[in-house]
Amino acid sequence: MKVKIWGCRGSLPVAMTSAAVREKIKRAVQAAQGRTFDGEADLDRFLDQDLPWPVANTYGGSTACIEVDTGDADYILCDLGSGVREFGVRMMVEHGPTKPQTYHVFLSHLHWDHIMGFPFFPPAFIPGNTIRIYSCHPDPEASFRKQQSEPNFPVDFSVLGADIQFVPMTPGEPVSAGGATVTAKLQNHAGDSYGYRFESGGRSFVYATDSEHKQKNAEETQAVVAFFKDADLVAFDAQYSLAEAVSLKEDWGHSSNVIGVELCLEARVKHLLMIHHEPVLGDEALYRILEETLRYEELMRPEGAAPLRISSAFDGMVLSLPEESDG
Amino acid sequence: MQLTVERRERAVVVTPSGRLDQTTVPDFQARLLEVLDETSGSAVIVDMAQVEFISSVGLRALNIGFKKSKAGGGSLSVVALRPIVREVFSISRFDKVLAVHEDLNAALAAVDAT
Fold it and tell me: Family assignment (chain B) (predicted)?
């Protein structure tokens, strides 16, 4: 199983500013002073090994969209945030307009940052393609039609040429799609959200975004631990700090890196992937949060327990389960 | 987890010891809220010198105490964080939410200044 991040941000798409680009260039040039480079491979080594990650890279700014690749011919996506535009462009390059494909989309919920990319998803316009949108919410179709109609968008939903099917799901009742068995779980978020656990070829991936963990009810916490149990990878909403999540932003429906570590350690998860990054945070800030999260895991890890691997998602990241990231 | 309460002239000093985690926090939180009920409107200082570790549930308990003291017209501050506890406060950004002082004298001075 492979998991590819097409959109790692929460709430709102963002783009790196000119000032941020210049700052990275300055730091890279400073670090390169006095060096010579023996070809492109040497330059790549410098970028990968000598520059701090947030100088040589960026997290990206597209909203929620994650691809789950089971090796099946069909495609699986989690959510249709702005990241799905680039995925759609990739599909057009790979398959063109004449080779029909099937896409299985699992929707966490219908808030705008999770569906805003759909009007810009080229495969939806092409007759012959099939798009099955799985959702535990009642009438998700209404949200898609409303989003893609005047005055919100100039091209009406009815113009879309693909066969678009809305498939109702019930939490706790698995469905088979795209080579995976998929189970949904209700989460705490305004208007409800749903997490999904994907099982395929002996590997497991949990997509758990837009979920606030209030720790007020042990039964509720244990249900989350059971949902995450022994997963190879959990993509977890770590948008806020714990302090924000319990004070100013309480009941805003998101969680923190600290809670992600605690839940994943208890569930013996192998790899925690922080997602739904706060749009106001730049690359340096997100990288610092990753370092702090690694430290918190060290402090929290029970004696003798295997370390929990932790990463912070970036657009374009690819994780092969259970191998190392090649993104 | 042990907890002592000392009523001083200008503040109530609550001193927990041991770990503030899932096992110990229910008791700690109940006792902290009891103290806040009994001393509504007072300055409460939580002396953390003997707290070895704090996890998210311990931080939440402090935050619940903080909100309750504020609602009652009082205050809640924490003092004397051990290095590891200080790290957890920083990672969780609780050092931006709660008033954190180096020691009891600094906290008492802050009470006097209000």
Answer: Belongs to the anti-sigma-factor antagonist family.
Contact yes or no for B96 and A243 at CB 8 A: yes
Per-residue pLDDT averaged across A89-96, rounded? Answer: 96
pLDDT per residue as tens digits for the range B11-59: 999 999 999 999 999 999 999 999 999 998 999 999 999 999 999 999 9
Tell whether omega for the bond before A97 is within 30 degrees of 0, i.e. cis: no
Which domains are assigned to chain A? 2-15+58-320 (3.60.15.10), 18-56 (no CATH)
Which residue of chain A comes nearest to B92, CA vs CA? A242
| A246 with B87: Cβ contact below 8 A | no
Distance of alpha carbon B58 from alpha carbon A266, whole angstroms? 17
Interval A261-267 mean pLDDT: 97
Alpha carbons A257 and A292: distance in angstroms, whole number:
9
**pLDDT tens figures, B85-111:** 999 999 999 999 999 999 999 999 999
Q: Could you give the dihedral angle defined by the CA atoms of residues A82, A87, A88 and A89, in that order, rounded to the nearest 10 degrees?
A: 110
Determine the 3-state secondary structure of A251 from DSSP.
Answer: coil
Residues A295-311, mean pLDDT to the nearest whole number: 96
Q: Is B94's CB within 8 Å of A300's CB?
A: no
CATH of the domain at B60: 3.30.750.24
Q: How confident is the model at residue A326 (pLDDT cuts 50, 70, 90)?
A: very low
CA distance A140 to chain B (A): 35
Structure tokens at A310: 């932790």
- Ramachandran angles phi, psi of A133, nearest 5°: -105, 110
Do the Cβ atoms of B56 and A241 come within 8 Å?
no
Residues of B whose CB is below 8 A from A293 = 91
Residue A323: predicted pLDDT: 52
Check CB contact under 8 Å for B92 and A293.
no
A interface with B, Cβ–Cβ < 8 A, is 215, 241-244, 246-247, 256-259, 262, 292-293, 295-296, 299-300
Domain extent for B34? 2-113
Give the model's confidence band at A144: pLDDT under 50 very low, under 70 low, under 90 confident, else very high: very high
B57–A259 CB contact, under 8 Å: no
Q: Taking a C-beta distance cutoff of 8 angstroms, is the pair A249, A190 a contact?
A: no
